[in-house]
Amino acid sequence: MPPKKRKRQKRKGRYHRGEYVSIKTGQVCKFRSGWEEKVMVHLDADPGVELWTYEQTVIEYLSNIRTKKFRRYYPDFYVKYSDGREEIVEVKPKRKLGQITVKKKANAAREWCASRGIAFKIITEVELKEMGLL
Questions:
Q1: Which among 7, 3, 34 is positioned nearest to 20, based on CA atoms?
Q2: Most buried residue, 66, 92, 125, 131, by CB count within 10 Å?
Q3: What is the CATH number of the domain that holds 105?
Q4: What's the domain range around 87?
Q5: CA distance from start to end of the chain
């Protein structure tokens, strides 16, 4: 008798979730990871950051070439700096960067940002450690 296949269940409580009220914008942001919360605190504390938003930018991308299915991608952060620079920031674990969906979203974000003169950056645990946030 073959072994039974177990249904994969998403573990509850795996990620640190909660709300953060931005000092700079006054917005209430519902973060889905402790890393996102650390970036929010960092952006509020950085004097070079003029303003930032959380998951408010919408980027449409072609999800399936065969069916021509479009989806919407909401990057984690839009950041505007005091010197006029703009940046879209996505926070992801390094181990997930190879996933097809993540690659599609990142490519769409790069194209979208390039057409608007905005920088795109993915922050992993490596960058968070370099920034002193982990």
A1: 34
A2: 92
A3: 3.40.1350.10
A4: 50-130
A5: 48
